Structure formats: C-alpha cells, structure tokens
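Thread amino acids onto this structure.
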C-alpha cells in the first residue's frame, strides 16, 4: 500500500496537495516549516494510534491544533484498489471508502522511547505477524460471549442459592409431619363419621396443595415471560432518518421495506407476549379462585370434625399446612434441578468460549515467537529479541484493584502477589467453585483472607476480569562487547540502533518516520 495523494484544506497547511512517488519520499525543510505537522495530520487522518497513550494524546492534540475547522484527505493505492480516507477535526474516526491496513508511524521522539515501553515493544513485534484484524474481531466476540455467559451463570447461581435457603426447611417439615401423623390417626379412629370426614379432608388437603403448587408455577412462568417481554423493550422499533431529497434516488428503499417487515414481526411477537402475560394472569387468578373454593370446603369439614371431637380441627389444620408446605418444597426441588442443569450448560458454553479465547492468544504468542526468531536470524547476533508468554500482568492487576476497591481489604499488596501468580481464568474458576485454598496459595495469604477476596470478587464483573488480556512480554537487547544489554540500559543512540533496523525490516508495509536521523550514533 502507498499514499498516492495528500490534500489538506484549511489550517496551517491549507491548500497542500502533493502526489508522493512510490518508494522512498523524504520531506526536507527548516525548523517550523510543518514537517512534523504533515506527519501528524497523516497519522490523524488514518487513525493510527501512538505506541504509548502519551504519544497518542500528544499527536492528536498537535493535529487538531493545526487543522482547525479543516480536513485532510489521503488517497491510498493498495493492490490496484484506490481508497479515499478523509477526516476533519469533528470526526470521531476516519471516513474511508474501503478497508486498509494501517501504516507504521513513528513520531519525532517515539523512535527513542518506544523501546522503553513494554506495550511499544509488543506493538513493534506485532507489526511482523501479519494482519490481525480478523483475529482481533474473533477475540472480541469470544470476550463478549464469556462476559455475557458469566452474568447469566451468576444470575442462575443466585436463584439456586435462594432456593437452597427455602429447601433447608424440608427436614423440619418432614419431622413435624412425622410427629402429627399419630395424632391424626387417633382422631381418624374415634368414629366412622369422623374417619370418613378426615379422609375427605385429607383428599381436599392434597388438592389444595396441588393447587398451591400450580399457582406458584403459573406465577413463575408469568414473571419469566414478563421479564423476557421487558428485555425486548418498547415496541422494538428502530428510528431512522429519511433519504435526503437532494441526494437523488433512494437506494435504501428495499432495505427500508425489510426493516418495516422486521418491525411487523417484532410487533406481532410483542403482541403475542402481551397476550401470554394477560392469559397467564387470568389463569393464575382462576387457579387461586379454585383453591379458595377447596379451602372453604375444607374449612367446613374441619368445623364438622371439631363438633365430633374438640380440638381435632387444630390438629388436622396443622397437618394440612405441613403437607402443603412439603408439596411446595418438592416442587421447588424440581425447579432447582432444572436450574442446576441450565447452570451446567451455561458453564460448559463459557468454558468453550474461554478455550477459544485461550487458543487465539496462544496462536498469537506462537506467531510472535516465530516473528522474533525470523528477526533474530536477520538482525542477529548484534540485536536479539525474546518473547515471554503472558509477562504483562498490569492490566489484570488493575482490574483486580478496581474490583476490590471498597471491600475493606488491604488489597494493594494482595493484588501485586495474586496477579502475577494466577491466570484470570484460574481466578474465575476458583471464585466460582469457592476454591479458597488455591487463592490462598497463589496469593500467599491465609484461607480466611482468601475467602474474603472470593466473596468480594463475586460481586464484581468476573467475566471482565477473566478476559483481561495478560499480554506477552517482549525484550530487545543489543550486543555491547561480549554481552547483551537490555534496551533500558542503552543510551539514546544505542536504542535507535536497535529500533531503526527493526522498523526498516517492514518491506511490504507503509512506514512513516519523523526525523529518524536524530540521536543516531555516527557508526550506525
């Protein structure tokens, strides 16, 4: 890809219109004539970020200060495709007629400082592993899937825990039923009439319990449908502007028709859900009314039994209440089993997404390692590049710090130890499974403190923490005498001696460098 034409309207370089030639182009001029400004405007137009956040911010401010209300337009030529890229100060991103691979742009001091930043070294090496746009897109999709599935799993887990609190009552209910059964049997044996009425009342009690279970199931179903209906929201319509009258024929006509058809489907679906909500409510009221009828009948029978034997109604009523609660809890057990199965399915899907994410990041590491080996073969033995898997845990540590803020834990020392000794996925699974021992071992802390960390992280965005990229760590070294020196130990000239040969190995990619000759030692 080459830059075929550069046009600037308004601002410091207003009227600038140049057609660079294929190959090497050099801009020569005195101080203050706009050489750096031209490069920063090209970088701004193509949306190329700096190798450090500070460089990105400084470059953008420079471009905006000289562009004013104007715009810059670049014409790119890539394998016979002509692509026009335009950007004004008010545009949040470049406006392009087609996709293009961003060039490598090094500002005036970047070539001296880029090697000192771990992120800068990584980006320099990544320039040699090919176009990663499709991989980045797939990785973004996997990250979104993990985060979404984690939220869903946490919601299901909370529902299961709530059911467990209710089901903890079951042993007590069974014990009380066992205690009341002998007294019920004594009452039933007192008279044939009393026995018959007790049998009838027992049947009614069973019917009332079933009606109660049905009413709860209908209510849960109605709540689920209402939540689903609410998540779709409103009328499900999309608003859009009409085609400008002065822009000629409307090429979006057929697409607008399809959007209209989609609106009809959505409105019909929402109408059906509204009908389900109304009908479910009506069904619930019907079952509740039927339950009241049976309860009235049971009440009358209890009065009759009490007339036959003083105090019998209290005992029978107590047994009825216990059996009704038992039936409700048994129904909740079935609901819990369904939730557990659903939870396991969600976790399995999340594990698949995590596996895919890990595979993509492992493949990227291998590509980086291979690129480093190729560069070492060409630039060695004077220059050496090494790659360590997952050596940059700063982003992970930052996510943990944010998650533990406000927890009451003294987390600064804890995070520093934990982030470097456990992977984001391991931490996610340890919190999910309450594996406090693993957290304690990796974080060099007590079991009690590890439990507090896990409880605090449960309320955080675990999906986001689990997908934080722990980037690979890249080192650049220069042979100085018989030994290699890390780039951080080199002089400015020596750092340029490492970076420039590396950058110039890009044979097929557009390269823009601002004053590369600065601070280079004479021998190089």
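Threaded sequence (524 positions):
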């Amino acid at each position: 890809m080459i830059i075929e034409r550069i046009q600037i309207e308004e601002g410091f370089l207003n009227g600038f219109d140049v057609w660079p030639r294929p190959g090497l182009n050099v801009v020569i001029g005195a101080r203050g004539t706009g050489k750096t400004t031209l490069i920063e405007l090209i970088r701004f137009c193509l949306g190329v970020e700096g190798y450090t956040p500070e460089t990105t911010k400084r470059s953008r401010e420079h471009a905006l200060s000289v562009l004013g209300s104007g715009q810059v337009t670049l014409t790119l030529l890539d394998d016979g495709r002509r692509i026009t890229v335009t950007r004004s100060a008010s545009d949040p991103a470049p406006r392009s007629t087609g996709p293009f691979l961003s060039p490598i742009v090094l500002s005036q001091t970047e070539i001296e400082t880029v090697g000192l930043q771990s992120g800068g070294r990584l980006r320099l090496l990544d320039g040699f592993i090919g176009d990663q746009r499709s991989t980045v897109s797939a990785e973004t999709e996997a990250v979104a899937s993990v985060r979404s599935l984690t939220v869903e799993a946490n919601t299901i887990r909370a529902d299961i825990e709530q059911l467990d609190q209710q089901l903890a009552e079951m042993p007590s209910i069974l014990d009380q039923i066992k205690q009341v059964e002998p007294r019920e049997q004594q009452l039933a044996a007192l008279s044939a009439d009393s026995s018959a009425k007790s049998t009838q009342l027992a049947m009614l009690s069973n019917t009332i319990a079933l009606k109660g279970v049905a009413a709860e199931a209908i209510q849960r179903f109605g709540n689920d449908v209402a939540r689903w209906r609410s998540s779709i929201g409103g009328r499900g319509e999309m608003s859009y502007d009409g085609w400008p009258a002065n822009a000629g024929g409307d090429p979006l006509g057929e697409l607008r028709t399809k959007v209209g058809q989609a609106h009809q489907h959505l409105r019909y679906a929402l109408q059906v859900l509204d009908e389900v909500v109304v009908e479910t409510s009506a069904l619930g009221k019907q079952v509740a009314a039927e339950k009241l009828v049976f309860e009235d009948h049971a009440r009358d029978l209890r009065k009759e039994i009490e007339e036959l034997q003083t105090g019998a109604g209290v005992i029978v009523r107590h047994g009825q209440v216990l059996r009704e609660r038992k039936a409700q809890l048994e129904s909740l057990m079935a609901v819990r089993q369904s939730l557990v199965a659903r939870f396991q399915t969600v976790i399995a899907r999340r594990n698949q997404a995590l596996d895919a994410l890990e595979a993509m990041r492992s493949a990227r590491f291998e590509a980086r390692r291979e690129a480093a080996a190729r560069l070492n073969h060409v630039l060695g033995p004077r220059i050496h590049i090494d790659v360590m898997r997952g050596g940059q845990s700063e982003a992970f540590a930052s996510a943990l710090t944010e998650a533990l803020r406000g927890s009451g834990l003294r987390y600064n020392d804890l995070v520093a130890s934990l982030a470097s000794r456990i992977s984001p996925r391991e931490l996610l699974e340890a919190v999910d499974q309450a594996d406090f021992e693993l957290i304690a071992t990796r974080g060099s802390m007590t079991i009690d403190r590890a439990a507090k960390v896990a409880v605090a992280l449960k309320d955080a965005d675990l999906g986001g923490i689990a997908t934080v990229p722990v980037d690979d760590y890249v080192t650049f070294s220069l042979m100085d005498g018989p030994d290699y020196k890390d780039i951080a130990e080199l002089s400015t000239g020596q750092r340029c001696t490492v970076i420039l040969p590396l950058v110039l190995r890009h044979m097929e990619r557009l390269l823009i460098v601002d004053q590369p000759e600065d601070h280079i030692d004479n021998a190089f």
